[in-house]
Amino acid sequence: MPQSLLRRRVGVFALATLCCALWGSSFPAIKIGFARLHIAAADLFGQMLFAGWRFALAGLVLLVWATILKKSVLRLTARQWRQVILLGLTQTTLQYVFFYVGLAHAEGSKSSILNATSVFFSVILAHFLYADDRLGGRKALGCLIGFLGVVVVNLGAVNGMGLHFTLLGEGFIVIAAFVISAASIYGKGVSQGLDPVVMTGWQLFLGGLGLTAIGMAGGGHVQTLDPISGLLLVYLALLSAVAFSVWSLLLRHNPVGLIAPFNFLIPVFGVSLSGLFLGESILRPANLAALILVCGGIWLVTRPPRRPAAERLAP
Hints:
Structural class: mainly alpha
Order of helices and strands: HHHHHHHHHHHHH
Number of helices: 13
Mean pLDDT: 83
Low-confidence stretches: 308-315
Largest sheet: none
Shape: globular
Helix content: over 70%
Distance between the termini: 14 Å
Strand content: under 5%
Radius of gyration: 20 Å
C-alpha cells in the first residue's frame, strides 16, 4: 500500500475512533447529569429539555468558532438555509424524539443493539445513492461481524431478552437509527456546498432549539445547574461540537460505507467508560470479545481491495 494512502487510512481511523470515543463517553456523562438534576428515567420531556440545551449550546460553540475563523456563518443562500433547517430538525430533533420515546418503552441493552442498525441503513442507502460506495461481500461481512460485537457487549446486561417488539419501543429505536442514517447521508451532500463546521453548527443549534421547544411544551423541567452538572453540560456540548463536525468532515471526503461501521465502537466505549465512571463491571470476557469483533469488522470494511497480481509485480 502506498505510504500516502496508509497515512490517510490511519488518519481516518484515528479521527473516526475519536468521534466514537466522545459519543461513548456521553452515556456516563448523561447518566451522572440526570442524577445530579433529578431527571427521572421516565421524565421524557425533562430529558428532551436537557438534550435541547446540550445541542443548542454545541451549535452555538461551533458557530462562534466558525466566526472566529472568518467563515461565512450568516450569509447562506435561501437553499442552504432550507438545508440546514431540514438537517437540524431531522438529524437532531426528530432522531432524538424517536430515540428517547423508544428508550422509555424498551430495554436499554436491546435499544443499544437496535440502535446499531444505523450502520446497516447507512451502508445500504449509500449502495443505492453512490456509484463508488457499493456494498460488496467483504463490506457486508465486516458489518455483520461488527454488529455481532455490539450484541456480545450487551450479553452481560441482557436479562431474559426475548422477541418482544412494540412500535413505541423497539420500533421507534429502529426508526431513530434510520433517521440518523438518512440525515447523515443528506448532510454529506449538503457539506459539498457548505462548510462542514458552519453546517454542523446550524444543524445542532436549530435541532437543539427544536428539542428545547418540545421539552418545554411537554412540561419538562430541569433544576438549577450546580457546578458539576454545569460542567457536564458544557462537556456534552463540546463533545457534540467536536464529534459531529469531525464526523461531517470525514463523510464529506470519504465514502459512507467506509466511515459508518465505526459507529459499532460507540457501545464498546459506552460500556467501558460507564464502568470506569459509574463503577459498573467492565472486566468481562464479553467486552474483550466485543472489541475484537468490532475492530475485526472495521478492518474488513476499511481494508483496501487487493490489487491484481500483475499490477503488484509491475515495476
